[in-house]
Amino acid sequence: MNLYPLQFEPILKERIWGGEKLKTFLNKPITSSITGESWELSAVKGDVSVVANGELKGKSLTDLIEANPNEILGTAVYTRFGKDFPLLFKYLDANQDLSIQVHPNDALAQERHNSFGKTEMWYIMQADDNARIIVGFKEDSNAKEYVENLENKTLLSILDTVEVKKGDVFFLETGTVHAIGAGLVVAEIQQTSDITYRLYDFDRVDASGNTRELHIDLALDAINYNKVDTYKTYSNTVNESNTVVDCKYFTTNSLPVDGTITVAKTGETFTVYMCIEGTFEIKSNGQKNSYKKGDTVLIPAGLKSYELSGKASLLEIYIS
């Protein structure tokens, strides 16, 4: 198998809260003024990514893994997850506030939905003035206080609201009540899961006058009612991989590229690059490919040596 850096067709999702920044800011081929998400790399059933470049163009991610699991996933990832691609990569445009929601942990998600849980991280790519997010409770709470405030429509009074800016990173373990606020473009890295329990949606209605489904009862035993610290600090040393998040599900590094970096891998895990700013190139097996802000690239685990060059800010993600 001829291994090379893989790009995939974006899977575009209309959302009631979406806008047009995925086109104007990230050059995605959206055709709707309410596009909220671009799924860059996905093996979620019904939304499996398809290769957009090179001789494997038109092949699905799951077909590639089925035929060559060690070469695509890596030996350690294949041993741990089998042929399941364990992560999901997205860009989001929040033109309006997203719903207040929570994701179940692995045990609950497996029991109820035969799915992974949804631990995730957000990298703020662009933030309007005064944009904010909701992450967890202001103080330790409990189910009784939560339900009372939900019923009284005062839930926001006990949740922690944080103003954000470009470059901020938040790590959300399962059980953390959260919402992305209006005016944000976010790069999201998460476990492969589309399980969301919606708690409150600001009483919004869609174009047909319908409200969206809430999952009040399901969420009760999925919520972590303790105050949590989600903000991550990190370094940005040029031409080095600076750890941002290191958890059992994924490792994310900040990698500012200025010049050329020679990369050597072990074959144990795939690597993904999300281009947050600038332009860069990857040279491998005598070929060179160019990328820009908003591009997401999968380096198959079997591609063990390559060069990165250019001037760009990258998120580098793998499983350790």
TrEMBL record:
The active site is at R198. GO terms for molecular function: mannose-6-phosphate isomerase activity; zinc ion binding. The keyword NADP does not apply. Gene3D superfamilies: Jelly Rolls. GO terms for biological process: carbohydrate metabolic process. Residues 8-114 form the Phosphomannose isomerase type I catalytic domain. The lineage of its organism: Bacteria, Pseudomonadati, Bacteroidota, Flavobacteriia, Flavobacteriales. CDD domains: cupin_PMI_type_I_N_bac (cd07010). Keywords: Isomerase, Metal-binding, Zinc. This is Phosphohexomutase. Zn(2+) binds at H103, E120, H178. Binds 1 zinc ion per subunit. Residues 243-318 form the Mannose-6-phosphate isomerase cupin domain. The keyword Metal-binding applies. Its cofactor is Zn(2+).
